[in-house]
Fold:
Amino acid sequence: MAPLHSVRPRAISRIAWLEPSRLPFGFDDQNIYSGILFPRAGPKMAGLLQSLGYEIEVISGELSAIDVDEIARDFDLACISVLSNTTPHGLVLGRWLTERGLPVVMGGYQFAHNRWDLDALATTAEALDFVPYVIRGEGYAALPRFLQALDGKLPFSSVGGLSYRTPDGRTIHNGATPLLDRDQMNELPLADWSAVRDVETLFIVSAHGMQGCPRSCSWCAVWTRDGQRNRNTAAERLVDELEGALSVTKCQHVFFSADNFPVIHTWATEVCEEILHRGLDVSWTCQGEVAAVQRTELVELMARAGCRRWCIGLESINNASLADSNKRQTRETMEEAIRMLHERGVHVHGMFIVGLPHDTPETIRETVAWAKRMRIETCQFLCLADLPGSSDYEQHRLWEKSFRPLTDAYEPLNWMFVNGHYGRLGNEVMPPAVVQRVMGDAMLSFYSLPRALSRLVTLDMETFRVARRQGKGWFRSLREAHYHNLIVAFLRLRGWRDTHKWLKVPINQTYLRLLDARPEEVPALSRELVSHLPPEWVSTFERVYAERLERDEEALEPLLRPVEAAGLTAGD
Structure:
């Protein structure tokens, strides 16, 4: 088969920006932490490309079905942006669109790495069996140049971060493009949420604004991928983008998706002040670190600006585990942070990792008991994952250590299980199977039915006292305390429901059995795992794998000719 790069390019006018879900629209994925995977780069890239004269539509697989025939018919190019766990769906879509004659370029977090060697580029090489082009890393500068190259106005060699295969079968990886600095980021056009298909159905929207993180957690890929410098969107521009999203959606809540919203406190302060200055009446959630809570004035300002919930990176109550992960916190500072947030009427969503160094089943059970004692409203317990681009992934070669039950044609499907719900890595005392069981037990314990229902018949005195300190009357304070408990009860009931449903989904049941399987049982269970996926996916991966074997055989043939001429066979 000819390399996909040999697909005849054409002038580009209409672009489909695709952000696939992990499984096709309507498929019962059973993400424990259910909800929309908000369009990520799509609105921002829509604003950029429209400013350059292109027409673009953003299609999120969480919001809309993705119809490849419609896209191949109505668009000139497809850009597919993927996370690790949405990569298999993206590969399938890319292959189907390519087979229909549409140019396709892939990008996203799956292909953003610091290192530039064959091991780090393996995910990119894998994708090139399905699509003709991959852009690694940040696309704001690379994608416009790629469009010019596709139109014949620039050589492909000039596009930073571009990977492709030449017509003679060679794989080319251009050098990476430097990340934009803060001034360049703020020169980009505003995000355009109106370009998102079915955007009017969104009840939660995201505002990002922060690129990277100044911290250096060893398992995290954010700071290695997007840098540690301040490249944040100016407060005025970020709130402009937020107002644009609010104007075209049914938004009831905003998620500030920056991985560590308050860490650059001057910026977070400016964003909150801008929200208050404009009189925006909106409630929102942020992600933040423990240390930021020590800035009491900032926390109080955030609460006044509408912050109702912190997703706080607690990770572990084991100080040794925290130190090994480069976390700048201790159990004691975490307890102080939770108390401070609660005293200001901010709900806490505790984010924990199972499988860190020094974790044991006993320490995780202790963590669950601690979370209950600290009256944390909601929690997530996620298995430690092998995130491409993270410091741990590249320094410790986690692709060789993670649990990857699928091989050969189905090997790329292993990425589906990099979302924290599945045991992939073990530590010195817990293999992946134990990590999986301990994580599930933690979720079932925290989200028990009695703990959810009890909130319906009790009064949250802490919320009541906060409201009274804010000068609110007795009746209003009681109402807010009751409303707080209703919200917590609803979220915990949803956690109880989704955890139990997740455990019953056939593909998850098969994965759990694989973790404990004897070697002779693995082939049959792996086939069973694949059988739970859409059959058209399976046939696509099988077809691509057969082509790869054929290509490898053709490449090997000239090397075998001298051996055959000497009267020997390859087996000799």
